[in-house]
Amino acid sequence: MVRINCSSSAKENMAMCAHMMSKWGKENNVSVILSQAFDIPFVPGESDKIVDLNGGWWKFDENLEGDITIDSFKEKLAEYLEYPSSFEPDAADYSFLIWIGVGIGLLVLLIFVIIQTIRLVEKQRLLSQVEVSEFHEGLKNARIHQKNATNNDFMKTKYDKKKYEIAKQEFKFGKDKESATILGEGNYGIVYKLNVSRFPDPVAVKVPHSGCSKQSFQSHLSEIKIMCFIGENEHITKFLGAYTKEIYRGKVYIVTELCEMGSLQSYLYKVATNKRENKTTQYNELVRFCKEIASGMNFIAEKGVVHGDLSARNVLLDKHLTCKITDFGLSKKLYQYQIYTTKQKVELPWRWLAIETLRRLEFSTKSDVWAYGVTVWEIFSLGDLPYPGLMWDIKFLENLEIGVRMKRPEMATYEIHSKMLDCWNIDPDQRPCFNVLLSFFSGLKKNEYV
C-alpha cells in the first residue's frame, strides 16, 4: 500500500487518473486500485511508506515477472497527477461512459412515453379493464336479477378469439369508410358491404357510431356474445367474426354473412307495388316467410335467449329469399331468467311490444311471441306500419289492455288472423309457443288464398 504526492489542483483530476492508472496497470499486468479518498485520514501500518502530501491511497500488487516496481508506478501516477493535460485519452477510453449516458437517456424517454401512452389510453377508455375482461373471459359470477333464475350460460360464455377474432388490416374499407358501400344505418351504427381478406365473398360489417354511449356500445358486445352462444341455424344470420382489440375505447367491427336481398320489410314494400304478381303465389311466399321466422325463433327460444326486437325490419333475406333473423342488440338476458327488466331509458319499438313490456318493461319469450304476431301482420299487410295513424301514449296501452287489436290484413286468411290474436293474448301464459306456431304455418296448405 503506498500514498502518492500531488498538488491540491491535481485532486480534481483524481477520477480520470484512477481510470487511466487502472488501464496502465492492465497493460503492464498489474492490479491498480484507488483505495481511499483524499479527505479520509490514513492510519499507516508497519510496512506502509508515508508521503507528506495527500494524493490518495493506492493498492499496488507488484508483478514479480515484470519490470514494473512501486517506484515506476509512483512515477507514472505522479505524471498523471501533476500534468493531466499532457495525457489525452482515446475517445474509446470513455465510450462506456457515453453509452451509459445514452442508455439512461433512452430509459428516461421510454418511461415518459409509456406514462403518456397510459394517460392517453385511459382518457380514451370507454370500458374498464374489468368490463373488457368480462367480455373476453365471461362473467364468472353472473348477476341474476330475478328469482329462480338458473341458466346463466350466456353471461359466462367466453369470446373465442382463436375462432372469431379478425385482424383490423383484413377489413378493406379503402382510404376512408365513406367509399365503402352502406347497406343500412340506424341509431346505433352503420352496416357496410365489405371485402374481408379471409372470406372469398363480400360480408356485412356492422360498425357502431363514433362516440356512441356506453350503453349502446355494450349492446353491440352483447350481440356478439349472444350470436356466439346461439350457434348456427338456417334462419339466423350467421356470425363470422369480429375485431375486438379496441373495445376498451368503444371500437368494434361485427362481421356476419351478407344477405343480398336486404330486409324483409323493404322486400314487402316492393311486393306491394308489383300489381301483376299472382296473389296465390304471393300468399304462398308469405306463409313460407312466417314458417321460417317461427323456425328461427323456436331455435332461439330453445337456447334460452330473448330476442326483444323481432320485426320485419330485423329479418333479412339472402339471395334465395330465405329468412334470416338478425339484430340481437336487446338480447341481454336468458329465457330461463323468466323475464328481465331494462331500467335504463332506451328507445323501444312500442308498436311491437307486448302489454307487460309496455307496462313494466318485462321481456320474455312470450313477449317475443307477441312481437312475432305483429311481424306476421306486417307480412300479410305487405309492409304496412302496425297500428297505422296511432302515436304512443297511455291511451294506446289502455286500449290494448281492454282487448283492442289490429284487424285482419287483406292477404291473411281468417285462420291466420286468429293465430295472430292468439299471439296477442293479454295473458302471456296463454300465448302459443314458437314450436306450435312453426307447426301451424308448416301445416297450411298451399294455394289457400281466396
UniProtKB/TrEMBL annotation:
Write down the chemical reaction(s) this protein catalyses. L-tyrosyl-[protein] + ATP = O-phospho-L-tyrosyl-[protein] + ADP + H(+)
Cellular localization per UniProt: Membrane
One Pfam family from the UniProt entry?
PK_Tyr_Ser-Thr
Coiled-coil stretches noted in the UniProt entry, renumbered to this chain? none
- TM spans, by residue? 96-115
UniProt KW keywords: ATP-binding, Membrane, Nucleotide-binding, Transmembrane, Transmembrane helix
Q: Which SUPFAM superfamilies match?
A: Protein kinase-like (PK-like)
Q: How does the protein's chain sit in the membrane according to the entry? A: Single-pass membrane protein
Chain sites annotated for binding ATP = 206
Task: Give start and end of each Protein kinase domain.
Answer: 177-450
Record-linked PANTHER family: TYROSINE-PROTEIN KINASE RECEPTOR (PTHR24416), TYROSINE-PROTEIN KINASE TRANSMEMBRANE RECEPTOR ROR (PTHR24416:SF611)
Q: What is this protein called?
A: Protein kinase domain-containing protein
